[in-house]
Amino acid sequence: DAGITQSPRHKVTETGTPVTLRCHQTENHRYMYWYRQDPGHGLRLIHYSYGVKDTDKGEVSDGYSVSRSKTEDFLLTLESATSSQTSVYFCAITTNGGADTQYFGPGTRLTVL
Amino acid sequence: AQSVTQPDIHITVSEGASLELRCNYSYGATPYLFWYVQSPGQGLQLLLKYFSGDTLVQGIKGFEAEFKRSQSSFNLRKPSVHWSDAAEYFCAVGRTTFPSGSARQLTFGSGTQLTVLP
Predict the structure, then answer these.
(1) For residue A22, what are the β-bridge partners?
(2) Which one of A40, A80, B61, B92 has the fewest CB atoms closer than 10 angstroms to its CB?
């Protein structure tokens, strides 16, 4: 357990509505990541952060934005949710300064109707 | 670009039997390799990792994996499977990213679902 919580854990929303998922960590880790998990695809990186206000895109960033205004929180926003964004979203952190292992939160199941 | 292939979508073994899950990767430099396990409705738990050194690495729950550079493989093994090992297993390869210079971007395989028969 790397002190990661995600909220909400489950959400159902409608196409076109904005959605924000929150990742919160309690151990002051610098590096944080957002992944989505879909059947047959494993996990794919959406965005990551390497410090407050420092973020970069991952493999599947289209339709997503992120923000990190303080060390402990990394927010993932879907500006206008689409059905293709129905997925399970995982937040992760890296210990020991980035070049070490990623530990994952419990996940958020998002359904876009 | 890096990639990971897990050729077996689903494997069924009997309890007490040995297990090998296959993982092949594509990466231009020395890879950082990981195996994670996911139980239904849960997050991912790290089983083991390879960064450098001894090519046979030991992990938690009695798992081990062997890095074979010549075969671009990092197969996961367990000599005797327990019913509690039923889960989905993911292999991943990591590379450092820029501009941060040290954040690790992971590429995952599509997973292998393990069923354990009594």
Answers:
(1) A7, A75
(2) A40
